[in-house]
Design brief:
- With 128 residues, the chain is of the alpha+beta class.
- It has one domain: Ribosomal Protein S5, domain 2 (2-Layer Sandwich).
- It is built from 4 helices and 5 strands, in the order E-E-E-E-H-H-E-H-H.
- Strands 1-2-5-3-4 form a 5-stranded mixed β-sheet.
- Strand 1 and strand 2 form a beta hairpin.
- Helix 2 packs parallel to helix 3.
- The chain is elongated.
- The termini are far apart.
Length: 128
C-alpha cells in the first residue's frame, strides 16, 4: 500500500497526515505521540478515528503539524486521520460521520476591535 496523505485543520492548527499500513507507530513532528501530546486526553482525541473503527496498530501514521495550541493541534490530527482513512476505505464513512470526525469545526477567534479591550468586551461606561 502506498502512502496516503490528508490535511486536517482546526483553529490555527494545520496537520498533514501520512498514513500507510504498518505496525502502529504514531509519529508527530518526529516525536512519539506520547512525547508530543503529554496528556492522555489529547492522545485520545488524536487517536479517536482509529479507536472507533478498531484499527489501532494496523497503520503507521506520521504527522507534520504547525500553528495553534495543543487542543487545536490534536483535533486537526483527528480530522486528518479521518480523511486519510476515508481514502483507504470509503465504507468507513458512515461510522466516522456519525461520530462527527469528518466535519471541519469552523469556529475561529474573533478579531479585536479598535476602541475596545477585546473582541466584544467594552470599556466601563461612565455616565458622569
Amino acid at each position: 500500500m502506498e502512502v496516503i496523505n490528508a490535511l486536517g485543520r482546526r483553529k490555527a492548527a494545520v496537520a498533514r497526515v501520512y498514513l500507510r499500513e504498518g505496525k502502529g507507530s504514531f509519529i508527530v513532528n518526529d516525536r512519539e505521540i506520547e512525547n508530543f501530546f503529554p496528556t492522555e486526553t489529547l492522545q485520545y482525541i488524536a487517536k479517536q478515528p482509529l479507536n472507533v473503527l478498531g484499527l489501532e496498530g494496523k497503520y503507521d501514521i506520521k504527522v507534520n503539524i504547525f500553528g495553534g495550541g495543543v487542543k487545536g493541534q490534536a483535533e486537526a490530527v483527528r480530522l486528518g486521520i479521518a480523511r486519510a482513512l476515508l481514502e483507504v476505505n470509503p465504507e468507513f464513512r458512515p461510522a466516522l460521520k456519525k461520530e462527527g470526525f469528518l466535519t471541519r469545526d469552523p469556529r475561529e477567534v474573533e478579531r479585536k476591535k479598535p476602541g475596545q479591550p477585546k473582541a466584544r468586551k467594552k470599556f466601563q461606561f461612565s455616565k458622569r
